[in-house]
Design brief:
Its main location: cytoplasm. It comes from Tulasnella calospora MUT 4182. This protein is mostly helical. Among the domains are: 115 residues, Serine Threonine Protein Phosphatase 5, Tetratricopeptide repeat; 67 residues. Helices cover 84% and strands 0% of the residues. It contains twelve helices and no strands. Helix 4 runs parallel beside helix 6, helix 7 runs antiparallel to helix 8 and helix 8 packs antiparallel against helix 9. The chain is elongated. The chain starts with a helix and ends with a helix.
Amino acid sequence: MATESGGREENEEREELLRLHSSGLECSETAAVAPANKERVGSDLNVLDAEANGNTEIATEVTHCNPVNIRCGDKLGEARALIVLGVTHESLGDMDQAISTVRRAHDIARDIGWEDGLSTSLCRLGRVKLELGIHAEAEELPREAVRVARSSDSGWRLAQALWFSGECFRAQGRFEEAVSVLEESCTVYQNLTRSFTVDLANAAASLADSKSTLGHKEEALAWYDRAIAEYHKDEDTYMRRISYCLAAKDALLTDMKRRDEEALHGEASS
């Protein structure tokens, strides 16, 4: 019963955040919302996205989505707000609203030449399409995001788009292709100067899973170790993911030990 109550409270909180953020978005058109509400929208949605998705791109957008940007006629602020609003719709399971909202952000970003926002909105659209099982579109959207990120020399967004591409390939069982883009994603993330980014941990875990599936066990172990090391930098938040990687490592090691024992028995019997 406590779990059901907690779930209701969480849903009510998300609905309230959505209402507040919708109000904050209206500010870009009417400048009618109090600054205190806009500040709460930014801080609360930062936490919401971190909990729901384990990604940092929306936190980055929210950091810059301040009362100066959210003003009448500010298309850049409007696009940033729409991206966050789209993520909120996605978190609530309203995929149609998520798609239409992020498409608006995409169109604005394209029209004003904001390449970072264009890349992020393409990735977000791809994520929703992937969740809906529309693999062809889900694959094409992050591919276009990769192209945009390369042309704008945006390292973090390039790594993000490559990771999304890898997830699309993994969902379709195309693990060789997944490994190719995930390796590049991890390389780009590792070249960034941030002290911690969960994005690198997520990409490393995806790469480890893909290599494990392909039978590249030693390489998979190394990438699980890298993912675990990154998650440990904020272990209170990512303990569940640490546990997943540890369990995957244990299963790999058990399988490798069993195969070694079988090989030894085979040599002895011959």
